[in-house]
Queue: 3 jobs
Job 1
Amino acid sequence: MLAAVFRKIGSTLELEEVKEPTGGIILKVLATGLCHGDLHIISGDWKYDIKIETPRILGHEIVGEVVNDTNTLKSGEKVLVYNSIGCGSCKYCRAGKYQYCERVKVIGLHMDGGFAEYVKIPSEEILLKIDGDPIEIAPLADAGITAYNSVKGISSDDNVLIIGTGAVALLGLQILKSRGVNVTVVGRNHNRLNKAKELGADDVISINGRSTIASVIRGYTFNYIIDYVGSNDTLLDSIWLLDREGELRIVGEFGGTLNIPEQLLVLRGIKVRGILYGSLNDLINVYKLYVEGKIKTIVQKYRLDDINKAIADLAEGRIVGRAVIVPP
Ligand SMILES: [Zn+2]
Ligand SMILES: [Zn+2]
C-alpha cells in the first residue's frame, strides 16, 4: 500500500510502498486530518517529550472503513477513531482521560497512523460509528475533541477571548456560539479572521507587527481566555485581560513561557490550566454537535501523494480550517 513515512526530523515525508498491516482491526483509510502536532513531530519540536520511533506513518485524525466484521462493527461501516489508548487501570484511564495515562499509546505517534491506505487499530472500543462525509468528519477526531474539551463549563453568562484562528480555535468558537456565549477572536491571519467572523464571532481583532494582545484589546475584560497558540507572543500579556475569577486555558503548543505576577493571580482569583486532547466521551459529544448541525468543519482536501504540499501550506499559514489527506 502507499504510505507517507516519517523517517527523519526536518525532512519531508517519504511516499513509499509498504506492507499492509495485519492482525487487530484493519481500517481502509477514507480521510486523515493533518494536525499541527504532525508538524511539531516532523520539525523535532517534541523530540524530548514524545519518543517517536522511525520509520513511522503519522496521522492521528482518522476516518476509516471497517474491512472485516468485528464483535460490534460490520465490514463496510465507517468509523471515527479516538486516537489514544491507555493502560486501562490507572486513575486517569479509569476517569476516561487516556491522554494523561503514563503508558498512553497514540495512533499515528507511537504506532502507525492514517497517512496510508490502511491502518491497524488495536481495540474496537476506540471506534465511533459514523455516517456522513469522511473528509468533513475526520477533523473531529483531534481538532474537534480538543475544541470540545477546551470550552467545557463556559456558559452564556461568560465573555470569552479566543486567541488564534486555526482549526481547533474555529471549532471552539462554533461550540461557544451554539451556547450563546459572547466571543472575541484575536489573530494575525486575515483569511482565518474573516472565517471566524463568518462563523459567528461577535468581534474579530487583527493584530500585526509587534503590538501585543493586551495593548490591542485594551479596555475589555474576559471571564475566559482560550489560547489556541501558546507562543511567547500570545502568552506575553493576555492574562491581564482576565476579569476577577477569570481563567486562562492554554491549548496550543507553540512552546511559549508564561510569566505571571503572583499578585495578579491572588488579587483577581485567576486560574490557569492546560488542555490536552479529550476523552472518548468528548468525541461522542462533539460528533453529536456535528450531526445536529451546530458545528461544521472547514476542510481543504489533499491527495496522499500531495501530503508534503499540505504540510508546507499548513506551516506557512495557507490553510483555513483543516488540511485533510485522502488516499489515492
Ligand atoms: Zn493533533
Ligand atoms: Zn492508564
Note: Residues 86-87, 90, 92-93, 101, 103 surround zinc ion (ligand 2) (CB under 6 Å).
Job 2
Amino acid sequence: MEVERVQALATLDTLPPEFIRSEHEQPGITTFHGPIPEIPVIDFSDPDRSRIDRAIADAAKEWGFFQLVNHGIPSEVIAELQRVGREFFEEVPQEEKEAIATVPGSGSFEGYGTKLQKDLEGKKAWVDYLFHNVWPERRVDYKFWPKNPKEYRKANEEYTKYLLGVMDEMLKSLSVGLGLDEHALKEASGGEDIELLMKINYYPRCPRPDLALGVVQHTDMSVLTILVPNDVPGLQVFKDDHWFDAKYIPNALVVHIGDQIEILSNGTYKSVLHRTTVKKEKARMSWPVFCSPPGDTVVGPLPQFVSDENPAKYKTKKYKDYEYCKINKLPQ
Ligand SMILES: O=C(O)CCC(=O)C(=O)O
C-alpha cells in the first residue's frame, strides 16, 4: 500500500482539510499571547549539586518540564546527530526511506512512518517520523536504522552513550528531590535494563501553521523524555490552562517528566502535557529519546508516598499494560 507522507505535501499552497484542527486546538487561537512565565532553565555546570537537585525537583513539581544547559554532551555530538537525521529525511531517496517503514500490526513502534489513522475528530498531524531503539544493545534492531548517511549509526551510538549519563543524573536529582536514595527512581524503572527509544520528528513546512499541529497534545508514557530540537521553535507546554511557547535555547536538552515518574512519586512530580506547532518557512525537527521501563517492570506509587491520608492515586501495573492502555486510549 502506498502511504502518503506529510513531507510530500510541503509544497502545497493550501492545507488539506484533514489537517485543519478544530478551533479548540488550532494554535492560531489557543496559543497564549502575553507575558510568558519563566520556563525553568537549569544549568548543570553549577558546582552546587544540591542547588541543581532542588531546581530539578521544583521544575518537575511545577512544570513537569525544563531545559538543561551545560549538560556535558559536546555540541559536535549533537550537531552530528542532527546532521545525519536531517540528511535521512531530506536527501535519502523516498524508496530507501520506505524500505525501513514501520510494519503495521507488528506491535513495534520501530521504523519510518506517518500516523495513518485519523484521530477521534478525523484529523491528522503534520509530521513524519522515524523510531528505533538505541539501548540496551539487545533491544537494538539495525534493520530500522538508516543505512544512509553512512555516519548515521556512529552518530546515534555516540549520542546515546552521553545521553545515558545525562539520564542517570536526572534520575538521581529527581530521587534526591523526593527525599529518596539517589538510585531509587532508576531502580524502580528497571535499573540497568531501562530502555531508550529514539524518535526523529520531521515537521515539513506547512502552508497554514495557525490551523495545523505537528504532534497533538499528549503526555509521554515514559519515565523521562530527553529531546534536542533543531533551531526552529515549536514546542508548547500546557500550564494553568494556557499553551505556552517554549523558547529555543541553542544546545539545551529539553527534559519532559513522563507518566511513570508521576506515578512513582504518587503525583508529586507532574507529567507535562505538550504539543508542537509547525512553521511556514522552515521544516522543524526534533530528536526525543523516550527512556522507559522494560515491559515486565511493575510500576506504581512508591510505598513511601502512600498513606491513609495520601492514598495511591494510580494503579500499580506492568509497564507493557500501561503502554497498551495509553496507545489504545483505554482507561488505566
Ligand atoms: O517536537 C517536539 O518538540 C516534541 C515531540 C513530542 O512531543 C513527541 O514526539 O512525542
Note: The longest strand covers residues 195-203.
Job 3
Amino acid sequence: MPNVVFANRKGGVGKTLSTFYTGRWLARAGRDVTLWDVAALLGRPDGVITKRLRLSPDNQIPVAPRGWVLVDTPPALDGSLPALNEADYLIIPVIPEAQEVAQLTKFLTMLADTRSARPFTRVLGILPVRYIKQWPSNQAMVGEIHALAAQFGHPVLEPVPFSRAASTYSLRGGLWRQVANHLLAQERGRAEEQARAA
Ligand SMILES: Nc1ncnc2c1ncn2[C@@H]1O[C@H](COP(=O)(O)OP(=O)(O)OP(=O)(O)O)[C@@H](O)[C@H]1O
Ligand SMILES: [Mg+2]
C-alpha cells in the first residue's frame, strides 16, 4: 500500500502533527496505519497507539502489505531526502506566513529540479496548517500559496485551522480529517483503476 511523506525544508510547520492526525483519521475510517518516526513525539515505546494505529518498530520505513504508511520527516532537508525519494505521495505542510512561503518557494524549486530522482512520487498537495482565517495576513499568504502552487502545478489542500485542540491530540474539531479523506479518495481511484485494468 502507498506511503505518504510529510515534508518541507522548513522546521516547525506541522509535519509531525499532520502525520499523526492524518493517521488517526485513517485509522478511524477502518484503515490499517503505520506511522514512521513520530515515536519521540508520542513517547510510545511499545509502538502501539490504538488497535489499528502503530509506530514502525525498527525505525525503517516499512513496506506494509496492507494499509497506509505515513512518514514524518525531520526539520532539516538532508534528513528528509531519503524518505522523499521513497514517497508515493508527498504532502507539504506550510504555515501561511511570509517567511514560510519564501522557504516553500525554495523547496518547490528543489523538488522540480530533482524530479527525475522521484519518478513515482506524486505531490498530493500543499497543506496550509495553523490557519487563522480571520487574519488578513494569513489570508493573503494562503493566496500566495495558491499562486505558487499553480506555478509549480501542485494542488493546495483545504487548510487546517489553528486550534488549541491540536496539541492535545484530540479529534475534536475534525483537524486534518480532510487530508485523510483526500487519501481515501486516492485509494478509491486506485481501486477503480485496478478494476479497469483487470
Ligand atoms: N492546527 C494547529 N493549531 C495549533 N497549533 C498547531 C497546529 N498545527 C501545528 N501546531 C503547532 O505548531 C508547532 C509545530 O508543529 P509540529 O511539531 O507538528 O511541526 P514540525 O514540522 O513537525 O516541526 P519540526 O520540524 O520541529 O519537527 C507545534 O507546537 C504544534 O503544536
Ligand atoms: Mg516534527
Note: The beta strands are 3-6, 33-36, 48-50, 53-55, 68-72, 89-94, 122-131, 160-161.
